[in-house]
Design goal:
The chain is an alpha+beta fold. It has 3 helices and 8 strands, in the order βαβαβββαβββ.
Length: 145
Amino acid sequence: MASVCTYLNFTDQTEAAFSFYKSVFGTEYIGNISRFGDMPPMEGQPPLPDAVKNLVLNVVLPIAGGHLLLGTDAPEGMGFNLIQGTNVHIMVRPDSREDADALFARLSEGGSVDMPIQDMFWGDYFGSFSDKFGIKWMISFGPGV
Protein backbone atom coordinates (compact mmCIF):
# COMPACT_ATOMS: atom_id res chain seq x y z
CA MET A 1 0.00 0.00 0.00
CA ALA A 2 1.34 3.43 -0.93
CA SER A 3 2.25 5.69 1.98
CA VAL A 4 3.80 9.02 2.87
CA CYS A 5 6.54 9.30 5.49
CA THR A 6 8.44 12.21 7.00
CA TYR A 7 12.23 12.04 6.69
CA LEU A 8 14.38 14.13 9.05
CA ASN A 9 18.06 14.96 8.57
CA PHE A 10 20.28 15.89 11.49
CA THR A 11 23.88 16.89 12.03
CA ASP A 12 25.11 14.05 14.27
CA GLN A 13 21.98 14.08 16.49
CA THR A 14 19.71 11.49 14.85
CA GLU A 15 20.16 8.82 17.51
CA ALA A 16 19.46 11.26 20.36
CA ALA A 17 16.47 12.77 18.54
CA PHE A 18 14.94 9.38 17.74
CA SER A 19 15.52 8.15 21.29
CA PHE A 20 13.50 11.16 22.40
CA TYR A 21 10.73 10.57 19.82
CA LYS A 22 10.62 6.88 20.80
CA SER A 23 10.07 7.83 24.44
CA VAL A 24 7.37 10.35 23.55
CA PHE A 25 5.37 8.06 21.23
CA GLY A 26 6.04 4.87 23.19
CA THR A 27 6.77 2.90 20.00
CA GLU A 28 9.67 0.71 18.86
CA TYR A 29 11.95 1.10 15.86
CA ILE A 30 11.09 -0.92 12.77
CA GLY A 31 14.18 -3.03 12.20
CA ASN A 32 17.61 -2.04 13.40
CA ILE A 33 19.26 1.36 13.24
CA SER A 34 21.54 1.24 10.16
CA ARG A 35 24.84 3.00 10.41
CA PHE A 36 27.11 4.56 7.78
CA GLY A 37 29.64 1.84 8.62
CA ASP A 38 27.10 -0.73 7.33
CA MET A 39 27.31 0.67 3.78
CA PRO A 40 29.38 -1.25 1.25
CA PRO A 41 32.48 0.63 0.10
CA MET A 42 31.77 3.00 -2.79
CA GLU A 43 34.00 2.61 -5.83
CA GLY A 44 36.40 5.51 -6.24
CA GLN A 45 35.61 6.94 -2.81
CA PRO A 46 37.99 7.04 0.17
CA PRO A 47 37.13 4.88 3.19
CA LEU A 48 34.72 6.39 5.70
CA PRO A 49 36.36 8.16 8.64
CA ASP A 50 35.88 6.33 11.94
CA ALA A 51 33.89 9.30 13.29
CA VAL A 52 31.27 8.80 10.54
CA LYS A 53 30.97 5.00 10.70
CA ASN A 54 28.78 4.99 13.84
CA LEU A 55 26.48 7.79 12.66
CA VAL A 56 22.89 6.86 11.77
CA LEU A 57 22.32 6.08 8.10
CA ASN A 58 18.64 5.23 8.58
CA VAL A 59 16.17 4.73 11.41
CA VAL A 60 12.41 4.14 11.18
CA LEU A 61 9.90 4.87 13.95
CA PRO A 62 6.11 4.57 13.70
CA ILE A 63 4.61 7.59 15.46
CA ALA A 64 0.82 7.74 15.03
CA GLY A 65 -1.91 6.60 12.66
CA GLY A 66 0.47 4.47 10.59
CA HIS A 67 2.75 7.45 9.90
CA LEU A 68 6.46 6.66 9.84
CA LEU A 69 9.18 9.04 10.95
CA LEU A 70 12.56 8.28 9.36
CA GLY A 71 15.90 9.91 9.95
CA THR A 72 19.59 10.10 9.12
CA ASP A 73 22.72 11.94 10.13
CA ALA A 74 24.04 14.15 7.34
CA PRO A 75 27.82 14.54 7.66
CA GLU A 76 29.27 17.62 5.98
CA GLY A 77 32.31 15.58 4.90
CA MET A 78 29.98 13.54 2.68
CA GLY A 79 28.61 16.60 0.90
CA PHE A 80 25.62 17.41 3.10
CA ASN A 81 24.97 21.03 3.97
CA LEU A 82 22.05 21.18 6.37
CA ILE A 83 20.19 24.34 7.09
CA GLN A 84 16.68 24.69 8.41
CA GLY A 85 14.49 23.79 5.46
CA THR A 86 16.81 21.14 4.03
CA ASN A 87 16.55 18.90 7.08
CA VAL A 88 13.04 17.64 6.28
CA HIS A 89 11.94 15.56 3.26
CA ILE A 90 8.56 14.22 2.26
CA MET A 91 9.00 10.56 1.37
CA VAL A 92 6.45 8.89 -0.89
CA ARG A 93 6.42 5.09 -1.04
CA PRO A 94 4.35 4.24 -4.15
CA ASP A 95 2.82 0.85 -4.95
CA SER A 96 4.97 0.12 -8.02
CA ARG A 97 8.25 0.94 -9.74
CA GLU A 98 6.25 2.52 -12.58
CA ASP A 99 4.42 4.79 -10.11
CA ALA A 100 7.80 5.68 -8.57
CA ASP A 101 9.14 6.70 -11.98
CA ALA A 102 6.03 8.73 -12.79
CA LEU A 103 6.02 10.56 -9.45
CA PHE A 104 9.75 11.23 -9.65
CA ALA A 105 9.48 12.63 -13.19
CA ARG A 106 6.44 14.80 -12.53
CA LEU A 107 7.41 16.16 -9.10
CA SER A 108 11.03 16.88 -10.05
CA GLU A 109 10.12 18.72 -13.28
CA GLY A 110 11.54 22.21 -13.03
CA GLY A 111 13.34 21.30 -9.80
CA SER A 112 16.79 19.99 -8.92
CA VAL A 113 17.63 16.28 -8.71
CA ASP A 114 19.90 15.35 -5.79
CA MET A 115 20.00 11.61 -6.53
CA PRO A 116 18.54 10.12 -9.71
CA ILE A 117 16.04 7.33 -9.09
CA GLN A 118 17.93 4.03 -9.13
CA ASP A 119 18.30 0.64 -7.47
CA MET A 120 20.03 1.03 -4.11
CA PHE A 121 22.15 -1.35 -2.04
CA TRP A 122 19.44 -1.69 0.63
CA GLY A 123 16.98 -3.06 -1.93
CA ASP A 124 14.78 -0.05 -2.72
CA TYR A 125 14.38 1.85 -5.97
CA PHE A 126 15.13 5.35 -4.66
CA GLY A 127 15.72 8.95 -5.72
CA SER A 128 15.61 12.41 -4.16
CA PHE A 129 15.14 15.96 -5.41
CA SER A 130 13.88 19.44 -4.65
CA ASP A 131 10.75 20.43 -6.53
CA LYS A 132 10.42 23.75 -8.34
CA PHE A 133 9.16 25.32 -5.09
CA GLY A 134 12.17 24.17 -3.06
CA ILE A 135 10.40 21.32 -1.23
CA LYS A 136 12.64 18.27 -0.65
CA TRP A 137 11.20 14.91 -1.76
CA MET A 138 12.26 11.24 -1.67
CA ILE A 139 10.61 8.55 -3.79
CA SER A 140 11.26 5.03 -2.57
CA PHE A 141 9.74 1.78 -3.85
CA GLY A 142 10.72 -1.62 -2.53
CA PRO A 143 10.96 -3.91 0.44
CA GLY A 144 12.92 -1.52 2.69
CA VAL A 145 11.41 1.11 4.92
